[in-house]
Specification:
The complex is a heterodimer of chains A (515) and B (233).
Chain A lengths: L1 H13 L1 H15 L4 H26 L4 H26 L2 H15 L5 H16 L2 H10 L13 H7 L5 H12 L1 H26 L9 H12 L12 H47 L2 E6 L3 H9 L7 E5 L2 H9 L4 E3 L5 H5 L7 E6 L4 H14 L4 E5 L6 H7 L3 E3 L1 H14 L1 H11 L6 E6 L11 H4 L7 E7 L2 E4 L12 E6 L1 H10 L9
Parallel strand pairs in A: 1-2, 1-4, 2-3, 4-5, 5-6
Antiparallel strand pairs in A: 7-10, 8-9, 8-10
Helix pairs in contact in A: 1-5, 2-3, 2-4, 3-4, 3-8, 4-7, 5-6, 7-8, 9-12, 10-11, 10-12, 18-19
Chain B lengths: L4 E5 L3 H12 L3 E6 L2 H9 L5 E3 L5 H6 L7 E4 L4 H14 L4 E6 L2 H10 L3 E4 H14 L1 H12 L4 E7 L21 E7 L7 E3 L13 E7 H10 L6
Parallel strand pairs in B: 1-2, 1-4, 2-3, 4-5, 5-6
Antiparallel strand pairs in B: 7-10, 8-9, 8-10
Helix pairs in contact in B: 4-5, 6-7
Chain lengths: 515, 233
């Protein structure tokens, strides 16, 4: 028996098909980036909604047999399969068995199946008692026809939808944080409800025509303490009324207390929830930018933008600066970009992420650079460096571009003194004054321009100055007029914005100007 | 040549770099410092025209004969001192060209109010560079190479001499690229002393006395500068 189970476990462990199947099940259930998960989720949502609609329709109208069968067999069956799948992928029994066997062999002790099963099954049981697993189980139950009362459990199918709503999870999260306060209040509430419920039962059971059982007493206590007061049961004796007064007063106090606890819990977490939303939003876009630090440099960077930046977030560790950024109308969150946890929340695998390290501290900037590169090499990092001696460190940390504000400014001043006319020209080009834009035209593989001579492109008629070609990492300045354009060339041209646009439109669909 | 006489106030972060670059280009520079350490630093680095003076005192500034300088460059490390200095220089020397460095938006405004002819904002130029790096990486890098003369291609300003073959010609009728240079723009004295790009779409008549800015390899530029002295080609 033991050998048989063990060899079966080994067989499963070695079978690539089994592993692939399990991985697929896992992906479809949990991996948000899986393409099939979307369809799977939509199917479940559809099943839930249709089954609840049938339940509502059924109350007043007879339901056709096929619909009933669909409800019982199809829906319940799929839910049952889903439930079993979740249970299956929760842990790996065969692997545990093999591990235990190897351990036993290593230690020279007897291989014991019982411990493996005990551990494995207790883990499965642990999963089974989680709220979502219970909801899943209850959602299958209505399939059992003989018990009509189980029809009500169809409503549990609605709870299955909770899996797809993040806000509920966040709400629960907030409540869990205030577990201590809420539990204390709950016990106090139970204590008052039970004592006053019992008291009213003892005092009025034979005088009040509405109170027959202890349940009536407790029901009355709850209706009264919650300040709902249906009035179907009301005290008739003076002592009973005195008890009512006590419960009502304590009820008001308690309800306001609970409300304030929940509200404060939310306001404490509100920023976090908002930041969560921002990050979610960013991960949905194809490319975005994370700007670390809101200082002089960042402010200036935003002033340079000719059109408002679309996907970006400013991060700063100083709450006052985050507030300042928000006041200036920018999207900012109070997070530490040098922490692994923060940056790993961004989806660097699927999006183009650019990080600008613009804080005034070199140490901070290096740390952020390293952090970003450790998460994904594909994150582009542009770092500000203050001390020229740390440039090597930045390069070593993997920064794609480094920038020394002092050096840039010094070069500018130097140029301004040395060649004042040229300085004007360069400054105009750099700041993108409308008459002097230098732009890149990226030639694509399937492109009519490929193979043409430069002469044919006729730059001068669109008032453009053709400066050269960047080809395979080398710049060819002022190439001869007979030079042929090749695929993946980048043409460097200068001109007014409208000239560039016109040139682009002339080669509509052919040329792609990188934005 | 008086054109190249420049006074640099401050031998700190910025002054050092600028002084070194300008000295290498053969400018006649005078360094003024009020900090003893920086003053000695400048001397040990081989600068001969180094003055030690308290720049907050007008009497000391007056003694320096600053009218003879073409540009006064205020690059003190202390921004307050820099603004004060700019203001004193402007009040003392009405016609001097003053260039100042600023490290924030507020300081830029103050410097402009103090009368600086040109203010270079440390963060503005850097932020601009980041923007350009993101927007058009290749063009920005190439442009930087042109400016620093790293890739062998650079900008050059040249004045069209009298009796040049260019004198009186329309800019679009001259095929600059056949000489291995590209005309970027010019200062047309007829249209007032402003820089005009060739791509602005205005028909330019080249006259003697105009300054043209060309881009090209160093040798080709030098050859071209010699060429335009000729009457005929």
């Amino acid at each position: 028996m033991k050998e048989l189970l063990l060899s079966f476990a080994l067989f499963l462990h070695r079978s690539p098909k089994y592993k692939a199947a399990k991985q697929f099940a896992k992906d479809i259930l949990f991996d948000a980036n899986n393409t099939y998960k979307r369809y799977f989720d939509l199917t479940i949502i559809f099943l839930v909604i249709s089954s609840v609609l049938i339940l509502i329709y059924e109350v007043k109208n007879p339901v056709p047999l096929w619909l009933d069968n669909y409800d019982i067999y199809v829906v319940s069956f799929i839910f049952a399969v889903e439930y079993l799948l979740r249970l299956w992928v929760h842990n790996d029994l065969s692997e545990m068995m093999i591990k235990e066997y190897n351990d036993a062999k290593f230690l020279g002790r007897e291989f014991n199946l019982y411990t493996v099963f005990k551990k494995g099954i207790s883990e499965k049981l642990k999963y089974m008692v989680t709220p979502s697993a219970i909801v899943d189980l209850l959602a299958i139950l209505p399939a059992y026809r003989p018990l009509r009362i189980l029809r009500v459990f169809i409503l549990f199918r609605v709870f299955k939808l909770l899996r797809y709503t993040k806000s509920i999870n966040q709400f629960v999260d907030v409540l869990v944080n205030k577990k201590f306060e809420l539990l204390t209040l709950l016990f106090l509430l139970l204590f008052i409800v039970f004592t006053s419920g019992i008291a009213i039962y003892i005092l009025e059971a034979d005088k009040n025509s509405n109170i027959h059982t202890l349940f009536d007493g407790i029901y009355w206590a709850i209706v009264t303490i919650s300040t709902v007061g249906y009035g179907d049961i009301s005290p008739v004796t003076d002592v009973g009324r005195a008890i009512s007064i006590l419960i009502i007063v304590s009820g008001i106090a308690m309800i306001s207390f609970v409300t304030s606890v929940i509200v404060s819990a939310f306001s404490e977490r509100l920023n976090e929830l908002k930041e969560y939303r921002i990050i979610e939003q960013m991960n949905k876009s194809k490319s975005f930018m994370i700007i670390c630090g809101y200082g002089q440099m960042t402010k200036m960077f935003f002033r340079q933008q000719r059109e408002p930046l679309e996907h970006y977030v400013i991060m700063d560790t100083d709450p006052t600066r985050v507030e300042a950024a928000k006041k200036d109308g920018y999207v900012a969150i109070h997070e530490d970009a040098s922490s692994h946890k923060t940056l790993s929340r961004f989806d660097a695998e699927y999006c183009d992420v650019t990080i600008l390290c613009l804080t005034s501290s070199d140490v901070e900037n290096i740390y952020i650079t390293l952090n970003a590169k450790s998460i994904s090499k594909s994150i582009k990092v542009i770092a500000r460096v203050n001390d020229p001696e740390t440039i090597d460190k930045f390069k070593y940390a993997g920064a794609d571009e480094v920038l020394l504000p002092n050096l840039v400014a010094n070069t500018m001043i130097y140029t301004a003194i040395r060649q004042p006319t040229m300085y004007k020209a360069i400054h105009a080009i750099l700041t993108g004054k409308s008459i002097a834009n230098i732009d890149e035209i990226h030639v694509h593989a399937s492109h009519a321009m490929v193979g043409k001579q430069i002469e044919d492109l006729d730059f001068s008629s669109s008032k453009l100055l053709f400066m050269g070609i960047q080809r395979r990492g080398k710049f060819i300045f002022n190439p001869p007029k007979t030079e042929l354009i090749e695929t993946f060339d980048v043409l460097l041209v200068m001109g007014r914005k409208i000239s560039l646009e016109y040139f682009k439109s002339q080669h509509e669909g052919d040329i792609h100007v990188k934005k | 040549m008086s054109r190249n006489k420049i006074a640099i106030f401050g031998y700190g972060n910025h002054g050092k770099f600028i002084a070194k670059g300008l000295a290498a280009d053969g400018f006649d520079i005078t360094i003024v410092e009020s900090d003893k350490d920086f003053y000695e630093d400048a001397q040990t680095n081989g600068f001969t025209n180094v003055l030690f003076a308290d720049v907050t005192k007008d009497s000391e500034l007056k003694k320096m004969n600053l009218e003879s300088f073409t540009q006064l460059v205020c690059v003190m490390d202390d921004e307050h001192l820099n603004v004060f200095l700019t203001l004193s220089l402007r009040s003392l020397f009405k016609d001097s060209y003053i260039l100042s460095i600023s490290d924030s938006l507020n300081v830029t405004k103050k410097l402009q109010m103090a009368g600086a002819n040109k203010v270079i904002d440390l963060y503005e130029v850097s932020a601009n560079k980041i923007y350009n790096l993101l927007d058009r990486p290749i063009a920005t890098k190439l442009l930087e190479e042109f400016v620093h003369n790293r890739g062998g291609i650079t900008f050059k300003e040249m004045v069209i001499p009298k009796y040049s073959f260019l004198d009186g010609k329309m800019a679009e009728n001259v095929d600059f690229s056949s000489y291995g240079v590209l005309l970027i723009g010019m200062i047309d004295e007829e249209l007032g002393h402003t820089f005009v790009f060739v791509t602005a779409g205005i028909a330019h008549k080249l006259d003697s006395g105009d300054t043209i800015v060309c881009l090209g390899e160093k040798e080709k530029l030098d050859a071209f500068e010699n060429l335009i002295k000729k009457k005929e080609i």
